[in-house]
Amino acid sequence: MKPKFYITTAIPYASSKPHIGNCVDIILTDMIARYKRLSGFDVHFLSGSDEHGQKIEAAALSQNISNREYVDSVTRLMLGNIEMFGVSNDDFIRTTDEHHIKAVQGIFNKLYKQGDIYKGEYSGMYCAACEAFVPSGRIENGKCSDCGGEIIPTNEEAYFLRLSKYEDRLKEHFKQNPDFIIPQSRMNEMYNNFLEPGLQDLCVTRSTFKWGVPVEFDQNHVVYVWIDALSNYITALGYDTENPSDSFAKWWPCDLHVMGKDIVRFHSIYWPIILMALDIPLPKQILGHPWLLMGQDKMSKSKGNVLYADELCNRFGADAIRYYVLSELPFANDGNITVSSVISRCNTDLANTIGNLAKRTVSMIQKYFGGVIPEPGQTMDTDSDLREVVVSAVKNYFAKMDAYRSAEAIDEIMNAARRANKYIDETTPWTLAADHSLKPRLGTVMYNLAESIRIIGVMLQPIMPSKSAEILESIGAEDLSFESLSKFGAIKSGGSVGEAKTLFERIVE
Q1: Do residues 186 and 264 lie in contact, with contact meaning Cβ atoms separated by under 8 Å?
Q2: Considering only CA atoms, which of 476, 377, 368 is closest in space to residue 428?
Q3: Dihedral pair phi/psi, residue 117, rounded to 5°
Q4: Beta carbons of 28 and 73 less than 8 angstroms apart
Q5: Helix locations, 346-438, DSSP H
Q6: Phi (first) and psi of residue 460, to 5 degrees
Q7: What distance in Å separates the CA atoms of residue 437 and residue 503, rounded to the nearest whole number?
Q8: In this structure, are residues 27 and 85 in contact, taking their beta carbons and an 8 Å threshold?
Q9: What is the mean pLDDT of residues 279-306?
Q10: pLDDT at 302
Q11: Going by DSSP bridges, is the β-strand pair 91-94/42-49 parallel, antiparallel, or unpaired?
Q12: Which tens digits make up the pLDDT trace of 190-249?
C-alpha cells in the first residue's frame, strides 16, 4: 500500500480574471503533488474556486448578468490556467456545487445546534475588497492595511462562531505541533499576533447580500466565506455531518494545505476551530508561500501592475513560466516578476545552460558515435568530480523538495547543469575525437554527459513536466524514476539518442 498524501490549493475567489500572482498556488502545489507521486505516494490533489460573496454579486449586477453567469465565466478562466500549466489536480470543487452547498448547510446546522454558533449583532468596520471585518489595529488612515481598500462602518444582525471557546485548545495544538505552519515565521506571526492576544468570536453570516449559501432556518442570512469556502477541503471528499463518505475516511486529515501568506490566518485559526467543533482531526501542515511581486508591490488591477498567465505563457511557454515562478519563490521572502526578468532567467538558465548542454551532448553523440550512447571506460579526476557534484546535487535536491523549498531545489539542478557544461570545456570532446586512439576516453565523456542530462531531466519532472520529457527523450532515457537517481550510471550504453534540437529558444527583448 502506498502512503497517502492529500494536498490542496487555496480556492481562488472568482471575482475577476486571475493574474500570474494568483497562479502561484496551483504551480507550487502541482510541483509538490508531482514530486510526491514520483516519490511513491498515493496523491489526491484538490483545487477549486470560491464563488459566493458581495463582490461577485456587485460585479454581476454591473454587467447585467446573473451571479451564476458571472462566476461561470471567471471559473472558466481558472480552469483554463490549470489546463495551460498542465496541472495534475485530481478534483476541482466549486462552492456553487450542489453537494457543497448541502454539506455547508449541514455543518452550519450542527454547529448551531451544539451551541458553537449563536445569533448576535455585529458593529464594526468592514472592508468590501477583502470581504472581511477589520479590527482597529489593521486600519491605517481609514483604509485596510492588508489591501488598501476603503473601510465602511457596518452594523448588522449576524451569527457568530465561538472562537473563544476553542482558543486554549488551539494554543496547545500550536505548542505541541511546532511545524503546523511553515515557514516558522508564519507560525510565530499567527501565534503572537492573533492567538496570544485572545480571539474574538467570528461573524459567520451576512444579511446585506443574498449570493451565498442560505442558512436553512433563517432565510435572511447567508453563510459567510469562513465556513463556506474553508469547508471545501472536506466537502470535496464527500464529508457529511451524518454519513461521511469512504473518500473522506481515506484522505482526511489533509497532509498539506498550500496558500498565499495573506490567508494563513484564516486557515490556521478559523479552520482548525471549525474542525475542532465538528470533532474532526486537524490538517497536518499548512504552507504559507510568499507573494510574487511586481516590482515592490503586490499585483493589483487597480494599480495597473498585473501580468496575466495566458499572456506570459503565449510568449514564453507554460513550462518556462512554471520554472520562473518556482525558481523565483524563496521559502519565506517574496519573489519578483517582470517581463525582462523572465527573459533573463529563460535565456540564462534554460537556453544557455540546460538547453545548450542537452543539444551539444546529443549532437556530439550523433557525430562521434552514430547516435548510440557509448560504454564508459577509463575514469579520470575530472570525471569523478562531475559525478560527485551531480550526486551531491541529487541528495540536496531531495532534501529541499521534501521541505517544499522549490527555489533551492532548482538551484541544485542548476549546479549539476553548470558543472556538466564546465565538464565539456574541461574534456574538449572535439579534441578527443580528432585522435582515434582516444575514442575510449571520448566514450567515457559522452556517457557521463548523457547520464548527467538524464539525472537533470528526472529532477526537472515535477517542475517542467513537458520540457523534462523532451530532455529525457532527446538522450533516449528509459529509467525516469526517482529510484534511478540513487546512483550515477543508470543510463544504458547502446541506447539511441534522439534529435539534437533546440529545447529552449533564446529570447530577444
Answers
A1: yes
A2: 368
A3: -120, 135
A4: no
A5: 356-369, 381-402, 406-427, 429-433
A6: -80, -10
A7: 33
A8: yes
A9: 87
A10: 66
A11: parallel
A12: 999 999 999 999 999 999 899 999 999 999 999 998 899 999 999 999 999 988 899 999
